[in-house]
UniProtKB/TrEMBL annotation:
Residue stretches making up the Glycosyl transferase family domain: 239-336
The protein's name in its UniProt record: Glycosyltransferase family 4 protein
Record carries keyword Hydrolase: no
Gene3D superfamilies recorded: Glycogen Phosphorylase B
Lineage: Bacteria, Pseudomonadati, Pseudomonadota, Alphaproteobacteria, Sphingomonadales
Enzyme Commission identifier(s): 2.4.-.-
Protein source organism: Sphingosinicella rhizophila
PANTHER family: BLL3647 PROTEIN, GLYCOSYLTRANSFERASE
GO terms for MF: glycosyltransferase activity
EC class: transferase
Pfam family, one: Glycos_transf_1
InterPro entries assigned: Glyco_trans_1, Glyco_trans_4-like_N
Domain Glycosyltransferase subfamily 4-like N-terminal: start-end pairs: 13-180
Keyword set, alphabetical order: Glycosyltransferase, Transferase
Amino acid sequence: MSDMRIMMTADAVGGVWQYSIDLARGLSRLGIETVLATMGPAMTARQRAEAAEIPELRLIETGLVLDWMARDASAVREASSAIEQIAKECEADIIQLSTPALAAQSRFHAPVVAVQHSCVATWWDAVHGSELPADFQWRAELVRQGLAAASIVITPTAAFGHMTQRRYDLPTVPRTIHNGRTPLALTPRAAHDFVFTAGRLWDDGKNLRTIDAAAARIGVPIHAAGSVLTPQGAEVKFDHIHCLGLLDEDQLGQWLAARPVFVSAALYEPFGLAVLEAAAAGCALILSDIPTFRELWEDVAIFIPARNHNAFAHAMAELVGDDCERARMGRAARERAARFTPDAMAAQMASIYRSLLPAASGPRLTSRVAA
């Protein structure tokens, strides 16, 4: 029987789901039970099946609104109250929140680990660099309150931790625990000459316009995986990128197995799971020169100023045409990617959980083990 139970919030929209499922998988190997409460849009059948395969994982689909999709602050507070009740009912020893906003005005019965995966305020700072619009200001205020209320704050990179500290004027930098990722299943195949990228293609923070402009200047195709539909339902179109739509893990693995040159011109990236997936597959990396990517991929990637489409075009054309350098960089990227595993992430998170347990209900833990 598990001696610790974590209640973790997540969503099924993007990288937070993959982070959560990989963390739960790593925690299960440590004998730690996870209650995963999903929020936002419904999960897919594949996601439910993925969760069902993990020992020590219980899934609760809440349908509660995500903070960044909420109509107002009261909707976030309602969602937070519901999560608070779920945490009590499942007798969680630790509550891990996928956004600090959920801790803003709730009084959880157990220590709160707030994982700052991203937020609209730091996104706006990186993409626009101007004053926050009114609709972002109240969201940022909830995050600020939640950061102050949490027992500990985690960010996936030190670079994003410093960004968070500056934006919210925190007295200390959040604790860094790098994300881990289970490598995609790959069917061996010959390398192919194309460029690949993946992510939320509609997101201005991913800066696909720069890649689209670069695509017009090179003679090899650029394929992009991910949604082109904004949360409001509008479709983003590109002139030169071949958009593949949303791919499942098997489909993504098939594309990456060809070891294309992987490119990201992101302006904002708290971590970048898509880059890690590509690196683990042995893809050579061309990345925007932002602090996050420098922290993770220094010495194994080519770095380009984020908005310089001419420099991206030149780097992509040169690397696609140089088989030896492309293979060397792919091997280096794979070796670096091997550092970022679910087990390493889970071990560090488990250490944090245990450091917080003196503030939790010790007798209940003892009685659970005895039972």
